Amino acid sequence: MPKPETPAGYSPPSGTPTPSEPAATPIFAAAAPVAPAPAPLRAPAPTPARMPTVARRPQGGGGPSERPPWLIPAVIAVVLLLLLGTGGFILAHRGPSTTGGVTTSPSARTSPKTSPKTSPKASPTAVTGPLAVPNYGPASSAPITSVIICTVATPCNIPGSSAETATACDLASCKVEVGIYFSGPQRVPVSYILKFFDRCTGTTTDLPGPNPYTPPGYNIVIPTDHWSVSIPSGVKSGALVAVAQQPAVAASAPLMLGGDTCT
Question: If exposure means fewest CB atoms within 10 Å of the residue's CB, which of 1, 37, 66, 200 is most exposed?
């Protein structure tokens, strides 16, 4: 039988496939649209720092503040204290208030305060110390030349005899001896009384003396020895004065009794 004609240029397969050459891509073939690759991100060029011509306070809260966080509360507290202090100063220096059309005078408030302080000073009863002894009579009156309370400090001297100093007196117990001196011999009754002066209260108490004595012509007469005297009780400072009554009135120097204070 006749064999079929083999087409020109045909080679039979050899058992090992021969790779075919890739088909050439037409130059003007339509290509599928491809997205462009993203451009790489670049950091913007730094803007050169500009030196400010004037110092400005930062606006808003955009950036960090250089002032400490306690500054604003401290400023507020100082303002409140100033306001409160100013209010108190204004209230303290307000003028007199008026109520019902009557103005209250400031002098009405100060007068009760000053009067109690000044009244004790003007009071006659306020005593700061012992008072001076009053004058109960002259030191001499004819024919009397002197009257002496006979003590160790003021002895009653007698010519040709020892001095008399028998007075022993204080605020608790008192006995006195009084000598009356004359300018010449006496033959008339001689007598005296006693004046006790409270130097703290200013009170004078009359105390009796011995009975009158008529001397037989003596120039110095001591009516009696150790005459007992009753001193008023409760006295802190006092004085005793002998006052001759016959034949004339004359007073002795005071005999101080007690302390020099009334407290």
Answer: 1
Residues 203 and 214 sit within 8 Å (Cβ to Cβ): no
Q: What is the DSSP string of 114-182?
A: HHHHHHHHH-TT--SSPPPPP--S-S-BTTEEEEEE--SSS-B--TTSPPB---EE-SS-EEE-EEEEE
What is the domain-level CATH number for residue 191?
A: 2.60.40
Contact residues for 181 (Cβ-Cβ < 8 A; gap 6+) = 144, 145, 146, 147, 148, 219, 220
4 found inside a domain: no
| CA-to-CA separations, 186 to 149, 160, 192, 219, 250, in angstroms, rounded | 20, 18, 15, 6, 16
Quick one: tokens of 84?
């409160």
**93 part of a folded domain:** no
Q: Is residue 170 part of a domain?
A: yes
- Over the stretch 110-166, which tens digit does the pLDDT of each residue have? 445 554 454 444 444 444 679 999 999 999 999 999 999 999 999 999 999 999 999
Task: Tell whether 58 is covered by a domain.
Answer: no
Distance from C-alpha of 165 to C-alpha of 129, rounded to nearest angstrom: 30
Contacts of 58 (CB under 8 A, 6+ apart): 65
pTM: 0.53
Residue range(s) defining the domain that contains residue 192 = 144-258
- Closest by CA to 166, choosing from 146, 148, 147, 151, is 151
Cα–Cα distance for residue pair 245/141, rounded to 1 Å: 11
